[in-house]
Amino acid sequence: MAAPSAPRPPRPRKEPQPLVIPRSAAEEQRLRLERLMRNPEKTVPIPEKLNEWAPRPPPEFVRDVMGSSAGAGSGEFHVYRHLRRREYQRQDFMDAMAEKQRLDEEFQKKLERNKMIAEEQTAKRRRKRQKLKEKKLQAKKNKLEQKKQEKGQENAQLQWQETELRFCVQEIETPWCHLLYTTISFHIEINMKNQTAAVLP
């Protein structure tokens, strides 16, 4: 008599999952992703891309040639019907391929046309930005030149005032004139330093 086998351990019970009915395609996709991420080590079957249907190539040698002789059997009509259906499928496939090729060519032409339009618009905007940049540089240059001219005129005026003041001091030799000359010269020097600091960037 065989010895009694050991009792089999009970299987671990799976936790009951709540029933969730997706209300949209995004929610359904989220539920699928959650179910896949519960066990990341499990392999996921990825379906291969289906090949595009193509008609069967014509045979190299046709054995059963249908003729116009009398006495054809009743099964010849069905053979003819299958051949006709296959020929119609082949013609439809050729028309579909020609239409696809035409659409692809139109799409490529449209892409090239849009690319040319975008390049023209980019070049136009680049020229506009360059013109504005040159205009700003020219305005800045003119402003600096104008400041230099104003500074030169003020310096010439100050030098003329200083020369006139020296002539006055030479004409009238008094302590009061010397004090006035020293004070005005000091103010002229400070004014010139402030103007130079303002002009320099």
Summary?
With 201 residues, the protein is mainly α. Helix content is 67%, strand content 0%. The chain has three helices and no strands.
Overall average pLDDT? 79
Order of helices and strands: HHH
Strand % is under 5%
The main sheet comes to: none
What does this structure look like?
It is a single chain. By secondary structure, this protein is mainly alpha-helical. The protein is built from three helices and no strands. The protein has helices spanning 25-37, 76-171, 175-199.
Attribute tags:
mainly alpha, 67% helix, protein kinase inhibitor activity, mRNA splicing, mRNA processing
Topology record:
Layout: H1 25-37, H2 76-171, H3 175-199
